[in-house]
Amino acid sequence: MKKLKEAKELHEPVLLNEVLEALRVKEIARSKKACYIDATVGLGGHTREIVKAGARVLGIEADLYSLEIARERLKEACPTLESDDHFQGSFILTHGNFIEIEKIAKDNGFESVEGILFDLGISSFQLEGKNAGFSFQDPLAPLDMRIDPVSNKVKASDLLKVLNETQLIELFTVVLNTAKSRLVAKAIVRERAKKDIQTVGDFLYTIRGIFRPKRGQNVATLPFLALRIAVNSELENLKITLPAAFNLLNLGGKLVVICFHSGEDRIVKHFFITKEKEGVARLLTKKPIVPSYEEIQRNPRARSAKMRILEKI
């Protein structure tokens, strides 16, 4: 299938070996018949390797398109595990947002697990292969940015239409400094007075001239990231789901989170430190684990990844 071939070419799971080591997958998967939750299964890269090691995995994914690809990839990698559409031998894939992790886990018999993974990045395949305005490469694409259009009815273009200037400044300060956020907000208010900002091209035109090019980064990268975070309530959802995920861990279980921008990383770092101070967890990464030079050369999108590990005690 063409899209499966494209997914293989576009997607490489970030920090794969480091994740497997952090979760002790090869060490305990078969001996304990360990259960894990991949809260952001994406295209299934991490889940595939955990399953191949002999563990059971519950994979949660908000994007139905990515979930379909993940199912195909897992069937191909582990053909002997297939039994029916929902339960694939040693993995269950389910559509949902990780904010509901506690309910999804209980519904599927994963109330007590050895480890939970959050890879908070959007896959290259999602950015480049889905016509939802995630990428700034196609100016004609609708400015949508919803990971799950089934449950989320508010598009990026809707936010740019209804938020006032102060709210827009707050939206963009998640990833931009205040001065740049003000410039972007003023430009949006000025442009939408003439016409609605409906497409990727409309937004690119609106923010033209505000940012200077940086080596290795498109000038639109950060404004697009801020919009995506707001549309999908990513930071709010992360704050809510981390305590719920921690509650699902067995003693000695690991919570592994890979972040790709400072807003996410601050939330994770604060939660991990708080749990250690409460005496219920041990922080295993005083400094985050980052990709090697070799991995970044293979997969440039990995360059901003930071992984933190918390152990329940």
Automatic annotation (TrEMBL):
It is found in: Cytoplasm. The keyword Iron-sulfur does not apply. Signal peptide: none annotated. GO terms for cellular component: cytoplasm. Its EC number is 2.1.1.199. InterPro entries: RsmH (IPR002903), SAM-dep_MeTrfase_MraW_recog (IPR023397), SAM-dependent_MTases_sf (IPR029063). Pfam families: Methyltransf_5 (PF01795). The keyword Kinase does not apply. GO terms for biological process: rRNA base methylation. Keywords: Cytoplasm, Methyltransferase, rRNA processing, S-adenosyl-L-methionine, Transferase. It catalyses: cytidine(1402) in 16S rRNA + S-adenosyl-L-methionine = N(4)-methylcytidine(1402) in 16S rRNA + S-adenosyl-L-homocysteine + H(+). Specifically methylates the N4 position of cytidine in position 1402 (C1402) of 16S rRNA. NCBIfam families: 16S rRNA (cytosine(1402)-N(4))-methyltransferase RsmH (TIGR00006). HAMAP family: 16SrRNA_methyltr_H. This is Ribosomal RNA small subunit methyltransferase H. It comes from Candidatus Woesebacteria bacterium RIFCSPLOWO2_01_FULL_39_25.
